[in-house]
Amino acid sequence: MTILSGPDCTTMGEVRAGVDQLDRELVALLARRFAYMDAAARIKPERGHVRDEARKAEVIANARAEATRLGVPEEVVGALWEQLVEASIAYELAAFDRR
């Protein structure tokens, strides 16, 4: 089945196929992001260096700015990135503890 862009969809089947494909791509991107968390846990000298509130704020602000640039709701993206960054911190702490 050919995956259409959102504006080109004319049936719910096409919409669902597009969403399912996009979800697979997003999970693959998340796997790449978590690989960076593994690297950070390996590189940082102390567990106390994992949480960096200034960097967290910067990452969320960057995501919100990109959302605005792309015309998607920045509040939604900000909330998603808040959860993503917190999950990444938790993952990195666990990775740090495993090493």
Classify the helix fraction into a percent range: over 70%
Report the span from N to C terminus.
Answer: 44 Å
For the residues shown, what is the average pLDDT? 96
> Could you give the count of β-strands?
0
Number of helices: 3
The proportion of residues in beta strands is under 5%
State the CATH superfamily name.
Chorismate mutase
Structural overview:
- By secondary structure, the protein is mostly helical.
- It has one domain: Chorismate Mutase Domain, subunit A (Up-down Bundle).
- Helix content is about 75%, strand content about 0%.
- The protein has three helices and no strands.
- The model has no long low-confidence stretch (mean pLDDT about 95).
- InterPro entries: Chorismate_II_sf (IPR036263), Chorismate_mutase-related (IPR051331), CM_dom_sf (IPR036979), CM_II_prokaryot (IPR002701), Isochorismate_pyruvate-lyase (IPR008241).
- Its EC number is 5.4.99.5.
Summary tags:
single chain, 99 residues, mainly alpha, Chorismate Mutase Domain, subunit A, 3 helices, elongated
Question: What's the helix and strand layout?
Answer:
Elements (H helix, E strand, L loop, with lengths): L11 H32 L9 H18 L3 H25 L1
Summed up:
With about 100 residues, the protein is mainly α.
